Amino acid sequence: MIKVDTKYYNSPFFAILSEDQLYRIHSASLEILERTGMDVHNKEALEILGDAGAYIEGKRIKIKPAMVEKALASAPSKIVITGRNGNGKVLLERNVVNYGLGTDVPKQIDPYTHEVRLTVLKDIENIGKVVRTCDNVDFNSYAGLASDVEPELQDLYHFKACNTYCDKPYFTTAANGANMKALIDISAMFAGGYEKLRSTPSLIVYQEPVSPLVLGKESAEVLLTCSEYGIPIVFPPMVQMCATGPATLAGALAQGSAETLFCLVLHQLKNPGSPFIWGPYVSQMDMKTTISTYGGPVLMKSQAALGQLSRFYNIPTFGFACCTDSSDIDVQCGVEMFWSAFVNALSGLNLCHDIGYMNSGLIFSLESILLSDEIIGAVKFFMEGIEVNDDTLALDLIDRVGPSGNYLAEEHTLQYFKREGWYPKYMNKKTYEVWVRENKRSVKEKLEVRVHEILEEEAPSLISKEEKKEIDAIIKERQKAVLEAV
Amino acid sequence: MGCVKEIAGALIAGDADEVKKFVKAAVEDEVDPQTILDQGLIAGMDVIGAKFKASEIYVPEVLVSARAMHSGMELLEPLLAKTGVRARGTVVIGTVKGDLHDIGKNLVCMMLKGAGWKVVDIGVDQPAESFVETAQKEDADVIGMSALLTTTMVNMKQVVELATIKDCNAKIMIGGAPLTQSFADEIGAQGYAPDAATAVEVANGLL
Ligand code: B12
Where does residue B111 rank: exposed (0-12), middle (13-18), buried (19+ CB within 10 A)? Predict the structure, then answer.
């Protein structure tokens, strides 16, 4: 006998827009680019765009659809980033979801005193220590802003601190073209040359245009530098509905998409085929408190739409996962973190960053990394779907055990219980009586205990003395240049 | 006098036409323009400000009332100018050098305008000189500075220092996501506000 016409899903699937709705948003983006255009504050960018046939009206640049189509055709649909020592991998292509940290959070919850205070370099080292232990976190980033180093060189100090105990792929911003070049120099040192770094990049760079419709001087420098050296870059505008974009999601998506496409065009003109990650941030400004929301259903709707749009463009996309507007590890934090991780997966976003972000990106904590790790684990488990075959249907077993039997001691149970079940590290699965007897420990307390364990464990430095020396030399050189500039 | 209360009521309801109607009536009744301003328009906006701060109403609703206030002000301004009555105060406001974030600053501008301030917005990425020079030119009561980056908030100190050097006696008020009251104290700024609703209170308090 043969079973025919069967279709098996390896994961659940989900869509928020129809094909025609997607097309309308795309078409609206093209209209924004051709009719309104963007202001560009960078000379090289102006020249490149002008030479390629963009319409130039002073700083205002308008782009023809054909230029967008050409850029979409040359941008790669697949990008692989490998940790600098060959450990850990981020695969950016259709239907592959990766999770990791974000950058630049000014404040931290102190892991011991629990007070919210400015981030210091030591915190960033500790972030690497914690990320190293998280199986579900695919890439690392500094998620803070060290207040105890020169602001002009923060990104370079962050590199050294954050990578000391972790060698997963690294996600970073760069303050300007020169700092970007220094980060590339450091990474090339690890890779064994610029060519090697280009063929197997170990870092992903993050910079932004200014919504609405402005490309700034420094961020264009970073965009062009990354394009030249073949370093993957994500370049999302921050579209806050009601403030830097329309109050309506469709319009905000069209604007954010247009801004990103514009930057893609410039990026591909500089060096066709260079890796670019697409995807604006589109979310609600809360009209009661004026915060820019990182948690809640509006961002999730936009993320779902962006996943579809990126598949339409066939370019890897940026996502926002495990972020919350809450300032504490509390119920709100759990809810917002969970469902952002979940929607990112359902929507097939590729580079899902900002895990552990609290208070709309203004506070970070080590506990929130561990909580994200657990949440992503649950989402991964769900996304694996249901395996349906003779063995998992277990008809012989069901027949053998029969009415009133039990499955506890069966070989089949032993074989499958772990794979088909889910075992959290921190969520409470204890009976009430046991939980009370064990001092009613909350998830938050368990996270704190684990953070302390990790911080107190001996961890080997993953940067050798010689490598440290070279990094320091590169930082010194930049220091000199900065001093000379003033 | 009856009309003055009604001005405040219409303003709270965000009804520009009604505000105009009542301001006009009050002017015709020869109510003192200062009274119309203080007990009508500004009193109404103070209620709106308090409601916003208590999260009872939303930004766009505040802006509707602010627009209603401006339509009343248009009628009142020529009279105020004649009698030498000034706006509540003048504030010169901008985002500091190196920083391009402007949404928070723009919101603060709108709220201050709504509360009866004359607002001179100098934009983003502004050096210390332009804050201080503009403040002196405008004879401002307050300089407002915004910064969203830890790398740029340090530039606020230069403005405070330059103001002292140049004998500019405008009070300094700062804000932006990474800032704190203790940072304000540290650099010698007289006012700090964590959000736009508080910004109005703080500015009023500096007068
Ligand atoms: C939108 C946004 C952008 C937009 C800004 C667009 C625009 N037109 O303003 C763009 C994309 C340009 C941008 C760029 C960058 N950004 Co940005 N951005 C944000 C974001 C998401 C929201 C800011 C915002 O508008 N909030 C809403 C407004 C209403 O709130 P607000 O500004 O805080 O203002 C309120 C109060 O602070 C107060 N207030 C503000 N100003 C004033 C002034 C006075 C006088 C008073 C009394 C009160 C007051 O009242 C306001 C209203 O209630 C924040 C994250 C966050 N949660 O804040 C990051 C954030 C501020 N950005 C950040 C970073 C790192 C950057 C970049 C360096 C990123 C990069 N690598 O490219 C660049 C820097 C560009 C530059 N040179 O300025 C970091 C800053 C970290 C730090 N403290 O240093 C943040 C915190 C995000 C993060 N965690 O990474 N960003």
Answer: buried
